[in-house]
Amino acid sequence: MFREERGRLLASLVRRFGDLDLAEEAASEAVEAALRTWPADGVPSRPGAWLLTTARRKAVDRLRRDQAYAARLAVLQVEADRADPAPPAGTDGGLPDDRLQLFFTCAHPALAEEDRIALTLRCLAGLTTPEVARAFLVPTATMAQRIVRAKKKIREARIPFRVPGADELPDRLPGVLQVVYAVFTEGYAASSGPELQRLDLAEEALRLARILHRLLPAEREVSGLLALMLLTHARRDARTTEDGALAMLDEQDRTRWDRTMITEGQQLTVAALTGGPPGPYGVQAAIAALHDEADGVASTDWPQIVALYDVLTALTPSPVVALNRAAAVAMRDGPGAGLALLDELAGEPQLRAYHPYQAARADLLSRLGRRDDAAAAYREALALAGTEPERAYLRRRLDALH
């Protein structure tokens, strides 16, 4: 409950005080007060309102003690609010726009991408700085510097805490969605470490996507992103065996897929693709839905998946999209056709350090009987793989060639 309420609380305080550091300190002090008070007095009937009122008072106390803050902020106006501590409509049980403002502030295009992700996890997901640092396998001090740098940029560039106007939303929303999806991707497929997945991180990203969807229900790409994440996360339990080994799509026990999550994802996919031209997340959700609907790899509708990748290529061309399309073509037309497309991508710098590219080449070369070439590609993929389950899988495939 604290993690859920913290995002609302922080957003409301930022809107009122216009200072992210002050809001974080006051929110933390309010939670600390609750941890001391609630076990003795009981949880209030409106915990969100209690936290907000307490945090406002904590902020005012700080303003009184800190002359620098007092000179910069309208303390008298804040103190006037103490006479009427009721929270804004919707703060307790509803969904005010405050969090949406914070979404757009944390994902502002003026911030570097790594800073945007760090700030989103810190402010909206409620992770501590050490937790964010662990998520991306960097020292806590490094992550703290990123967060401080992002806050400083917000202050110096005078980035407003507000939801963009209707004319700005189409340009700004993709950046917000990109940050949430980047968090999910790191959780679904960790870039390095002993585990294949960071389920805690993936689930935090899903929680953020659900908040966004409740705040912007009419935005089809928000529906598409949530659908894509649900349809992908539904396979989480089947992606590793009981001993932690990686299981590829053709090896997964599909009875372990989360059918409730898949059904929800399918419904959101329909919403994302209805009412206008499709967006990138809606198309990717449709691809994920086709995988989830199939009984197995052999019965998957590969022609339709290739057609969807053609649409995605027109919307957001990239080497990774081209790689995924080549893999789908290999399933539709055979390994030779897929390998020809992969070879056309050999000069792409983005793919040189991307181990799935070499792993895909190795698989197709192996299926074509070119064992020496396949072994060389597996060795290249092995040198690039970031997690131990991926390296163990590639070693097994390499050993199988001999």
Structure description:
Among the domains are: 2-82, no CATH class; 217-317, no CATH class; 320-402, Tetratricopeptide repeat domain (Serine Threonine Protein Phosphatase 5, Tetratricopeptide repeat, Alpha Horseshoe). It has helices at 2-17, 20-41, 47-65, 67-72, 75-82, 98-106, 113-123, 129-135, 140-156, 169-188, 199-215, 220-233, 259-272, 280-293, 302-315, 319-333, 335-344, 349-352, 355-367, 371-384, 388-401. Helices cover 69% and strands 0% of the residues. It is an all-alpha fold and 402 residues long. The termini are far apart. The protein is built from 21 helices and no strands.
Spell out the blueprint of helices and strands.
Elements: H1 2-17, H2 20-41, H3 47-65, H4 67-72, H5 75-82, H6 98-106, H7 113-123, H8 129-135, H9 140-156, H10 169-188, H11 199-215, H12 220-233, H13 259-272, H14 280-293, H15 302-315, H16 319-333, H17 335-344, H18 349-352, H19 355-367, H20 371-384, H21 388-401
Salient structural properties:
21 helices
Structural class: mainly alpha
Strand content: under 5%
Instruction: Find the count of extended strands (DSSP E, 2+ residues).
Output: 0
Order of helices and strands: HHHHHHHHHHHHHHHHHHHHH
Task: Estimate percent helicity.
Answer: 55-70%
Give a short account of the largest sheet: none
Shape: elongated
> What distance lies between the first and last C-alpha atoms, to the nearest angstrom?
54 Å
